[in-house]
Amino acid sequence: MSEIPLPREERKKQFRALVGSLFKYVKPYKLRFAQAAVSMIFLAAIRGAVVYILGPVIQGVFIDKKLEILTLVIIGLPVIFVFRMAAEYINAYLMSWIGQKVVQQIRDDLFNHIHRLSIEFYWRKRSSDVMSRVINDLNNVQSTIQFIPLYGIRDILTVTSLLGVLFYINWRFALVSLVILPVTAVILGILGKKMRQASKESNILVGEISHKFQESLQGITVVKAFNYEDEAIRKFRVTNDKYFSRMMRYLRATALAGPLMEFLGSMILVAIIYLGGKAIFAGTMTTAEFFSFIAGFFTAYMPLKNIANLNAKLQMGLASWERIHQILEERPAVIVTSKPGNITQLAGKIEFKNVNYKYPSRETQVLKNLSFVINPGEVAAIVGPSGSGKTTVIHLLLRFFDPITGSISADGHDLRDLGTTDLRRHIGLVTQDTILFDDTVFRNITIGKPDASMEEVVEAAKAADARAFIDAMPQGYETILGERGIKLSGGQRQRLAIARAIIKKPKILLLDEATSNLDTASEQAVQSSIEKILGGRTVVMVAHRLSTVRNADKIFVLKKGELAETGSHQELLAKGGIYRGLYEAQS
Ligand SMILES: Nc1ncnc2c1ncn2[C@@H]1O[C@H](COP(=O)(O)OP(=O)(O)OP(=O)(O)O)[C@@H](O)[C@H]1O
Ligand SMILES: [Mg+2]
């Protein structure tokens, strides 16, 4: 990443915004949080109290040998410990609850958000990168939200309460143990910076790893057929090694924090034993006080260790939150005007006026000054060599993105003035790469019309020439298709996609190589039934096989993004241009 470092002020501002945005998610659970905080205070108080009474107990039982104190201890301590257990349970439970709840909300928002973004987002982002943020980073955030208050409030309170007790017993001694604080602050500060950076880098690599997994899983046929296994494995190993070393950088910093704290702690313990021993010999400190100090130290041990880890957790969580936040901050590239035009009715007239388009990631212009009109009810065909811009035209019609200059209109409304949902309600699409979901045949078809009845589904399947093979499947319309419809043939997949578009009975039907995988007989059957069902609707079809476009009212021949020829099949043949050349080559 070649990022220019921001000035300090700017970085601080960004950091605050980042923390603030996460805080917003926690805010609704203020009450639960307050309850957890109360139980944490309670717990800290109990821990302090236990330390406080330990000295007198030792004095009474073991030095003064008083039976009534022993009895009191046997009855009293279990009661205190039951309370301690309850408090510990309550604050751990509440914090996990809040952590899960927040993450559930974020996950929900993420899912929602990625559905609101434009296609352009998916050109830029790999799905595995998004996935790793949703799974891995969200996990880090969850753990941060859960543990930061536990470490940051419960444990700091515990240590504070212990310190309070120790100060109360003997302030000079307590002061010695405070030496630990500034030293740890400096150490943790230095380690924290390292952790955040390393954690950031390793998060990116997690995305890379899941990307490689996904690619091999999806492309397994090609991987195997081309003996690509070893190369794929080798490439994966490089990333995996890189991840290991980045992760170790983070873990080195983390692993150092705990033992360092422990070492500092034991040094102070030695100091207390030394000073305490001397003080007892000199008679300025009682044995009971001394034991309270030792007990205080051991009670503070775990909380102190957690506090040392606090920063590591926080840094990891914030680095992960930053990655999630980036996605939530993405804005759709296709902007819908605040008052979109109303198209409850659409006749189906389409007009391109001097449309120019270029993909953001490319220098070359894909569509150049493209102008044409398709009248309601007409069947228009777009033909042309591969890469000439046919699919781009189809996608522009769906307003997946907007032209750079020029305009596209439906029934005279500039698409920019229409709501995308409203527009797409009137459009049916069969994509070039058939897209099916891991669901039943029935539900794959009813994506086109969620409230469709069984009769409608059967009718659409019939029109798409899909009935025979659906009926032959073990559970018919209830058969689950598997990931990306892997259990079907290419032509079967395509027929389901056609049924999905037909059932919608759209005013505008866009067919991008919709019948390319069908045999000639099936193709003709599908075409004639589409004509029957969709009579009076506008159809824009893209086809390589020119026999499919013969009956079209208009044929647009695209060449390198420019409209090279227009006319009917006969007209274009008579013209003797590109179309005729293509046609002759095919027949
Ligand atoms: N998302 C994208 N980002 C960058 N360039 C793209 C993108 N999609 C398509 N292109 C480029 O735009 C040009 C037109 O692509 P398009 O998919 O419209 O061609 P096509 O006519 O549908 O081709 P085919 O007949 O092979 O489907 C091609 O050169 C292609 O490389
Ligand atoms: Mg295409």
Give the CA-based shape.
Answer: elongated
Low-confidence runs of at least 5 consecutive residues: none
Q: Might you state the CATH topology name of the largest domain? A: ABC transporter transmembrane region fold
What is the makeup of the main sheet? 6 strands, mixed
**Ligand set:** adenosine-5'-triphosphate, magnesium ion
Please identify the top-level CATH class of the largest domain. Answer: Mainly Alpha
Oligomer: single chain
Question: Based on DSSP secondary structure assignment, what is the total number of beta strands?
Answer: 10
How many helix segments? 19
In whole angstroms, how far apart are the ends?
Answer: 53 Å
| β-strand amount | 5-15%
CATH architecture of the largest domain: Up-down Bundle
Walk across the major sheet and give the strand order: 6-7-8-3-9-10
How helical, in percent, are the residues?
A: 55-70%
Order of helices and strands: HHHHHHHHHHEEEHEEHEHHHHEHEEEHH
Name the structural class.
Answer: alpha/beta
C-alpha Rg (nearest Å): 35 Å
What name goes with the CATH superfamily of the largest domain?
Answer: ABC transporter type 1, transmembrane domain
Task: Outline the structure in words.
- The chain has 587 residues and is an alpha/beta fold.
- The chain folds into 2 domains: 13-329, Up-down Bundle (ABC transporter transmembrane region fold); 350-586, 3-Layer(aba) Sandwich (Rossmann fold).
- It has 19 helices and 10 strands.
- Helix 17 (520-533) links the parallel strand 7 and strand 8 (538-542).
- Magnesium ion is lined by residues 390-391, 432, 512.
Salient structural properties:
2 domains; Rossmann fold; binds magnesium ion; 65% helix; elongated; four-stranded antiparallel beta sheet; ABC transporter transmembrane region fold; 587 residues; single chain; 10 strands; alpha/beta; binds adenosine-5'-triphosphate
